[in-house]
Amino acid sequence: MKAQSKNIKKDIPVFIIFLAFSFGLLYICTASSPRYAINPWNDANAFFTMGRAMANGATLYKDIFEQKGPLLYLIHAAASLISDTSFFGVYIMQSVSLSVTAFAAYKISALYLNTGWSVFSSVLTCFITVNSGCYYYGDTAEEFCLPLLMASLYFFCAYFKNTQQNSIGKPAFFVVGFFAGCVAMIKFTLIGFWFAWAAYISLYTWIAKKDFKKAAINALIFIGGMAAAIIPWLVYFAVNGGLKDFINTYFVINATAYPIERHYSFLVRLRKPLGVFSERILAAPVLSAVAVVGGVLYAATNFFAEKKFFSRMSVPFVAFLGIYIIYFGLRAYDYYLIPISVFTVFTFIFIAILLDKLFKKKSGVISAVSCVLVIVLIVVGSNYTNLSS
User: Fold this and answer.
1) Would residue 4 count as lying in a domain?
2) Which pTM does this prediction carry?
3) 141, 103, 121, 135: which is closest to 29 by C-alpha?
4) Interval 271-327: pLDDT, tens
5) For the chain, does the N or the C end have fewer beta carbons within 10 angstroms?
6) What is the domain extent for residue 45?
């Protein structure tokens, strides 16, 4: 308990730093910011319109139409309560979301680094995310899923760092399952990352640790967490007479409205999503390269996971399956790349590890100074690298 209390006390000022950093960074990098007169992106305006309608009592999909998930509109409904005539509330929601993403990246980094270098790694992860071409004007569904994905990745990394000493308890399975349910209610095509997360750990528990009972129980707890996030929405739509509209709009239309070429053979269809992904990386070449390098470093070096092959391949497996499911529909928009930004953290952690070894005894001071300089340079530099600017 004392150790947990000490960690919480240390984490609070770090989170406050991330909160201030996120507001400063997104003041430049999102068109929702009060720095800009309007947000020109049609999707962002559609989300905000849905949120305002929801806040004013309209039933989603029944009284007003748009095909993203209801939780995304709830976020925008909350934003409209702050300001229903501007995107200022959305800017606040985005900043809070980014600060949580940064904090989760910090917790991953802290598994391998001291506080200073962990902050260094996490702010660079945020910088490359919001300054990539795929971020566009901000306020995408993918953006609001990032903190949930990064937090889920933390549990994964903590476990596979040493599977003999570490374990993922039942509460963590429920929480990550709840995150998966939330993502399903924002944009269900992103759910592959969480299915990969649950499947990989369950298979490891069953095959490597030969404990089928524990694997099955954990899988059921994960599903229970998902249900806890989804059932309230089913109740909401049922009570408001919009359940059929919800299912038809969010699931049926999203699955069938976009044309897909049907003439592919089975094997070609299986590999086609990877081809679509490889074509889209040009929308954010630096982000994509750093993310791929991060996955390779996780698998190929001794810094992140124990030496077991199954542990080394854990993060690459989650990344691969998550990306594959995103592109399985063969549609390709630039912002589909945003989720891979979470894997860039491993590249920046690796760089920080090398710097830590280089400076040795002076590493604590150097890391603190580096944090301050990097944060300032990131915010200032974004004025020249970001699309919104």
Assistant:
1) no
2) 0.93
3) 135
4) 888 888 888 888 889 999 999 999 999 999 989 988 889 899 999 999 999 999 998
5) N
6) 10-385
